[in-house]
Amino acid sequence: MVQELAETQTRPRLEAKFRKPTLNDGAALWRMAKDSQVLDLNSSYSYLLWCRDFAETSVVATIDDEPAGFVTGYVRPDEPGTLMVWQVAVNSAFRGQKLAATMLDELAARLDSDFVETTITDDNAASMRLFSSFAERRNVPLERDPLFTRSMYPDGHDTEFLFRIGPLN
DSSP H helical segments within 13-124, as ranges? Predict the structure, then answer.
């Protein structure tokens, strides 16, 4: 899922740096997810664990040494060429600069993925735009199918649709 709003005012584009997350980033990732008000918020523990165990398959963007955004993902154990993107978030101070798209491009290139997958609910237009434009920039297919339907959840969560993009290579 992604959370990045359209730019409503003109501001200079800031230079972002991209790197693997470290344990020191866990709190910032949790705060960005919480502040997004659209991402499913996991425990702060899970973001620390993610920064330790899935740093190779995730990316943090910094601007002026401040965490500006992140993409968390993992390589599917049963499909080693597939990057599954878990969450995408951009700090509200840095939205409107295509940072989410750049982070996704950066991560897919670093991992040399054959496919990128994510799940998106029907009400998340920003995520749909992000992943659709990712596929369009590469001129590759994007398949969309229900993966986890509402009836599977004990809490009435909306259906998560699997977006599968590729092959990229």
Answer: 26-36, 44-53, 99-111
Instruction: Count other C-beta atoms under 10 Å from residue 26's C-beta.
Output: 19
User: Which DSSP state fits 9?
Assistant: S
In a domain, 28, yes or no: yes
Helical axes 26-36 vs 44-53, angle rounded to 10°: 130
Burial of 145 (0-12, 13-18, 19+ CB in 10 A): exposed
Tokens 């977006």 — which residue?
Answer: 163
Question: Sign of dihedral through CA atoms 72, 135, 3, 42?
Answer: negative
Q: Could you tell me if residue 6 is inside a domain?
A: no
Q: Please, what's the b/e burial string for 111-143 (b: 16 or more CB within 10 A of its CB; e: otherwise)?
A: bebebbbbbbbeebebbbebbeebbeebeeebe
Residues 131-168: tens digit of each pLDDT? 999 999 999 999 999 999 999 999 989 999 999 999 99
Token pair 């899922």 is found at 1
pTM for this prediction: 0.88
As for how many domains the chain has, the answer is: 1
Give the range of the structural domain holding residue 41, as residue numbers without chain letter: 17-165
**CATH classification of the domain holding 153:** 3.40.630.30
Report if residue 79 sits inside a domain: yes
